[in-house]
Task: inverse folding
């Protein structure tokens, strides 16, 4: 071969030599990398990566913004291509403000992790074996942050990784909400997941305390497979607290997110007051109840809508909002179709079960009142009333009452820092209307209470029909007002020192009593003794006023004056709110001459709980004695003179009566001031002793206290 022939070959070799060199470099680099990786893998595999314990604690701690510690054995290596992670005594610290040192700790974690999932941010665990895990979830006092949201890393909450197969045993969960004063310590049942599926519901159970009330809870996660894949969290929960059973069911976007999520709730128990008492809300006692509603939490508001159910024999519907802010507040709008009057007994301090079984007197005694008392001595829950605020609008269509027909109740309630106002309270009663404003102000001690009750013109026949009065022949009406103010933390105490006025006005009409008995006071007998005939026709009433002036809990007639077609009915005496005693006397003076008229007072005595009639008075016995004396001295005809009514009763002017005026304003039809209606004082003091002034007045009258 010549030199010329060899030149092309040499040039070709020179031309390709530079291309072979980079390839060799790349090959050597790749081989070096793989060799290095293999060496690293080999070192990790041989050493199990135990020497990475402290670097792991540092890197993981910086990533979480928390201190991460492994107290026991640690392994981190490829086995062979999956990342094996094993740690004993792993802890993740809580923020410094938390009450527990660790957010999470576990006796043992043994898992296999997909390497590429860590690179692309979608963490995938091939399998997980977790033993003795304990999580601590806690809100700060201001409810602005929690322990499971890593504020130092962008404020992102912990997200559950994807797990193909798992065994989780001995896991506990603690939840603390300082603002709600809620603490729960829960144990999670053992979880076994295969092929990314747990299959059956995961249960948990435990105990806790909300405010001062302990509770027990059992719950189930019904969608565990969806939960571990960051899907829906369908759960049910049942809790027992203060003799109540509470059920909650719903679907959460995450296990720790309940904001603006509709939850179905149901509660039942023997006393609704016990349920709300858990959050320090004072409510009158109730009989057994069962209620259900939809609950939505929106910040500090807990809204219960579509509320419906029963308490006792009464129904209830509406909505309720509980605002758990700086000051607890309840706002509700409620409606009842039918309210059993027994279920309303707690509103004045009576135990409804005692009322239903043994009556109002027994219920009053149970509040601390003395025997034969009806005014309750149940004390206002002053501390609770000053601890929360409330607003209530409650309408009631019908009230099931044995005696008085009541309907169309419209109640507005306001509680503002210890001042409770039922204003206005309106309802229809016996085809008449009642409007009331009741104030109980516990801001001052003892409470300052006021009662203002107005009765619009109401048919007496309808009003008394429930007590056995035959309505036929009764066309009269009655209207009135009660204005009282006193100091005390019970209804009895506030009335026992109250002052004010009570007045009931009776315009023209007729009144007929037959087969009547009212609270063991035989009104039929009373009226018959007053008007001294068989009541074969209705009493024709021109006008009437039954009024009392109340001073320091003692009510004195001021006046009692009823003018009828044939008689003038007068009354004296009064009653006491202190001991609930009655001491009144009534007399009917005829306007026309009449024979055989006893003309002696008929007394009402006893107590509010057991009033009685005294138809045999000393005056009647005295007149009988006079008649007997005349019969002996003169003749039997003369004895009749003792029972003659000369018919000198002075007809009353109806103007002052219909105006509800005091006794000193009463006049005869001729315009003269009446001297037979008293001056608004009782004939006897509370001790039962007659005052000197009363004795002087009685000496001027032939008929004793009149």
Result:
């Amino acid at each position: 071969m010549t030199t010329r022939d060899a030149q092309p070959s040499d040039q070709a070799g020179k031309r390709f030599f530079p291309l072979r060199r980079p390839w060799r470099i790349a090959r050597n680099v790749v081989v070096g990398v793989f060799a290095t990786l293999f060496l690293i893998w080999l070192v990790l595999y041989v050493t199990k990566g135990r020497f990475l314990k402290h670097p792991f604690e540092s890197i993981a701690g910086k990533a979480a913004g928390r201190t991460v510690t492994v107290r026991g054995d640690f392994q981190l290596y490829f086995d062979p291509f999956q990342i094996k992670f094993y740690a004993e005594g792993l802890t993740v610290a809580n923020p410094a403000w938390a009450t527990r040192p660790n957010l999470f700790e576990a006796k043992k974690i043994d898992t296999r992790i997909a390497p590429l999932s860590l690179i692309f941010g979608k963490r995938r665990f091939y399998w997980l074996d977790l033993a003795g895990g304990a999580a601590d979830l806690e809100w700060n006092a201001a409810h602005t942050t929690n322990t499971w949201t890593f504020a130092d890393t962008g404020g992102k909450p912990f997200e559950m990784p994807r797990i193909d197969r798992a065994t989780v045993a001995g896991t506990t969960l603690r939840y603390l909400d300082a603002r709600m004063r809620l603490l729960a310590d829960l144990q999670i049942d053992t979880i076994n997941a295969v092929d990314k599926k747990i299959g059956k519901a995961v249960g948990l159970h435990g105990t806790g305390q909300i405010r001062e009330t302990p509770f027990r809870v059992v719950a189930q996660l019904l969608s565990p497979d969806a939960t571990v894949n960051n899907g829906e969290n369908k759960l049910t929960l049942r809790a027992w607290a203060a003799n109540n059973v509470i059920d909650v069911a719903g679907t959460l976007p995450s296990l720790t997110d309940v904001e603006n999520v509709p939850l179905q709730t149901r509660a039942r128990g023997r006393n609704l007051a016990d349920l709300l008492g858990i959050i320090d809300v004072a409510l009158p006692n109730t009989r057994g109840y069962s209620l259900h509603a939809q609950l939505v939490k929106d910040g500090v508001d807990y809204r219960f809508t579509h509320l419906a159910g029963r308490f006792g024999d009464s129904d209830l519907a509406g909505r309720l909002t509980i605002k758990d802010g700086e000051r607890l507040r309840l706002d509700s709008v409620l409606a009842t179709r039918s309210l059993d009057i027994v279920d309303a007994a707690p509103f004045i301090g009576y135990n409804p079960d005692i009322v239903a079984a043994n009556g109002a007197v027994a219920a009053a005694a149970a509040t601390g009142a003395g025997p034969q008392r009806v005014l309750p001595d149940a004390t206002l829950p002053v501390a609770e009333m000053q601890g929360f605020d409330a607003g209530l609008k409650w309408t009631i269509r019908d009230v099931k009452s044995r005696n008085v027909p009541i309907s169309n109740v419209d109640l507005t309630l306001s509680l503002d820092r210890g001042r409770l106002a039922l204003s206005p309270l309106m309802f229809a009663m016996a085809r008449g209307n009642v409007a009331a404003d009741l104030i109980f102000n516990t801001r001052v001690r003892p409470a300052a209470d006021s009662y203002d009750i107005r009765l619009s013109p109401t048919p007496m026949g309808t009003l008394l029909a429930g007590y056995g009065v035959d309505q036929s022949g009764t066309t009269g009406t009655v209207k009135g007002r009660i204005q009282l103010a006193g100091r005390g933390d019970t209804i009895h105490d506030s009335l026992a020192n109250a002052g004010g006025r009570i007045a009931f006005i009776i315009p023209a009409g007729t009144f007929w009593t037959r087969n009547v008995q009212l609270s063991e006071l035989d009104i039929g007998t009373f009226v018959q003794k007053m008007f001294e005939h068989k009541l074969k026709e209705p009493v024709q009433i021109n006008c009437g006023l039954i009024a009392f002036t109340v001073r320091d809990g003692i009510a004195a007639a001021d006046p009692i004056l009823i003018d009828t077609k044939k008689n003038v009915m007068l009354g004296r005496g009064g009653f006491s709110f202190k001991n609930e005693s009655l001491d009144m006397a009534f007399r009917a003076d005829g306007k026309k001459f009449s024979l055989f008229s006893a003309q002696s007072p008929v007394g009402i005595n006893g107590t509010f709980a057991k009033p009685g009639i005294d138809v045999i008075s000393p005056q009647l016995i005295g007149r009988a004695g006079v008649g007997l004396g005349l019969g002996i001295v003169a003749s039997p005809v003369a004895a009749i003179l003792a029972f003659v009514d000369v018919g000198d009763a002075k007809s009353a002017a109806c103007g002052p009566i219909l105006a509800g005026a005091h006794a000193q304003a009463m006049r005869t039809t001729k315009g003269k001031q009446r001297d037979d209606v008293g001056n608004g004082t009782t004939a006897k003091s509370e001790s039962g002793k007659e005052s000197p002034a009363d004795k002087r007045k009685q000496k001027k009258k032939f008929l004793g206290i009149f």
Notes: DSSP finds 15 helices and 35 strands in the chain. Residues 16-47 form one domain. The mean pLDDT is 78. The longest strand covers residues 328-340.
